[in-house]
Amino acid sequence: MAKPRTTSCLEARISPELHAMLKRAAYLQGKTMKDFVVATVQDAARRAIGEAEIFRLTVSDQETFACALLSPPPPTPAMERAFARRRALLHTE
């Protein structure tokens, strides 16, 4: 029976200049080049995902959002129609 894969391979062609830079950066951090690249890519991926998924609001925007939640405006006619269609589709109420 074959063992399940626990890792995946990533290959990239880079310039000699970038290779030398990565090698130096890894050395300065006391890491192997592989460990340096993996850790750096993982950090960059986490940051990219976090930036895409987390909304950052100014204090003014936070106050506006909180007020809208606490005192929402009355539904518009289009919203009322949408709610009615939803109720009809889901057979609720």
TrEMBL record:
Q: Keywords of this protein's UniProt record, alphabetized?
A: Toxin-antitoxin system
Q: Which GO terms describe its biological process?
A: regulation of DNA-templated transcription
On the tree of life, the source organism's domain of life is Bacteria
- Ligase among keywords: no
Short name of one Pfam family: TacA1
Q: What transmembrane ranges does the database entry give?
A: none
Presence of the UniProt keyword Aminoacyl-tRNA synthetase in the record: no
- List the protein's name: DUF1778 domain-containing protein
Source organism per entry reads Acidithiobacillus caldus
